[in-house]
Amino acid sequence: MCRVLVLEFFIDNVNVEEFKGKRVLEVGSKYLNGSVRPFIESFLGPKEYIGVDVEPGKFVDIVIPVEKLSDYFGPESFDVVISTETIEHVRDWRTAINTMKGMLRPNGYIFITTVGRGFPYHGYPNDFWRYELDDMRKIFSDFDVLVLKRDIECGTLLKAKKPSIWKPRDLSNIALYSMLTGGRTANIPDITDMASSRRLALRVLNSDYGLLLPGTILEFLIKRFAT
After folding, report:
1. What percentage of the chain has pLDDT greater than the value 90?
2. Domain residues for 208?
3. Bigger pLDDT: 13 or 124?
4. Are residues 214 and 154 in the same domain?
5. Residue 172 DSSP symbol
6. Count of CB atoms within 10 A of residue 215's CB?
7. Helices and strands: H and E segment counts in the chain
């Protein structure tokens, strides 16, 4: 996925030498409403560009979950890792981000765009998290953060460089804002019974985000859990 402001972020913050002749991995590459791939391949001259996603589609070269990337390619296999508008949809965000960090060679670049609080619910098929600037600073405190900013649509935009000597940061104590619980949490609870499901659905319905849900989802939640 890719918003117009994400394309602008790449145009403004990439250099040819970061991509020319390099091996590039895009995580969550399926084309839905845009992609940075044509821009990078046409103007920046990478040696190889591989797009991966959990389901097939345009710009998906390999269907594979993020946690299997290291086994498939081997660690430190890429010079650049890109993920646009994807990590908010990944329940186990720690594994996803740690895997992407590990796929980078020393002095490689990572570009991540996601969304922060204020961005509406958008399930493809799920929408779990919101990332604030302070969250991204903590998550990437083991990298050299080169660009970190918000855009006018509440998007969170990051460019960072992997140090030549890298010591992974422990992410276990970082809590993010959860779209499911309506507050910050380290982990989303496993919903295994109707009582828990009803409590969670009511929290969503009574939050500001309840008004932003698509009509079909809102109707389902009301009929299933709120009556």
Report:
1. 75
2. 189-225
3. 13
4. no
5. T
6. 7
7. 8, 10
